[in-house]
Amino acid sequence: MERTFIILKPDAVQRGLIGEILARFERRGLKFAAMKMVHVDEELARAHYAVHEGRPFFDGLITYITSSPVVALVVEGTDAIAVVRKTVGATKPAEAEPGTIRADFGLEIGRNLVHASDGPDTAAGEIALWFGEDLIAWDRNVDAWIFE
Ligand code: IDP
Ligand code: MG
What we know:
Elements: E1 2-8, H1 10-14, H2 18-28, E2 31-38, H3 42-48, H4 58-65, E3 70-77, H5 80-88, H6 101-105, E4 114-116, H7 120-131
Antiparallel strand pairs: 1-3, 1-4, 2-3
The protein binds inosine-5'-diphosphate (IDP) and magnesium ion.
């Protein structure tokens, strides 16, 4: 069982797509382990995107992610990191496969709706940064019909 971290970015929230996007993860069988609405401040934005510091798009990225509230969540499930990245689609919506969130709802790289951790180390670091130890362990009665 693997955990990963997801953000529904400001454009997803402003466009009224929270439910639509969460539904894709939920019906896939992923189990929510934490969720909150946050108006990201500059410090958290810079920490979250530290790896991109110095890139030409960095300032725009910080402005974007702090511009309006986001929904941050942790999901768990089999191969959750790869499954979520595939469900989200390629960074550039124009290159994302149809059926992915970024292809179905987006057009531009700077308004690509969703963030998802890209590996085990970033997933662990991002979960710790955004939620600390604040995850919910709960029994989900349908698990036997989702996990073999
Ligand atoms: P990812 O979100 O698919 O992991 P990264 O390369 O980690 O993509 O970039 C982080 C975020 O930075 C992207 O999701 C996008 O919002 C933004 N970004 C990346 N490259 C560009 C760019 O060239 N122009 C504008 N925004 C960009
Ligand atoms: Mg990334």
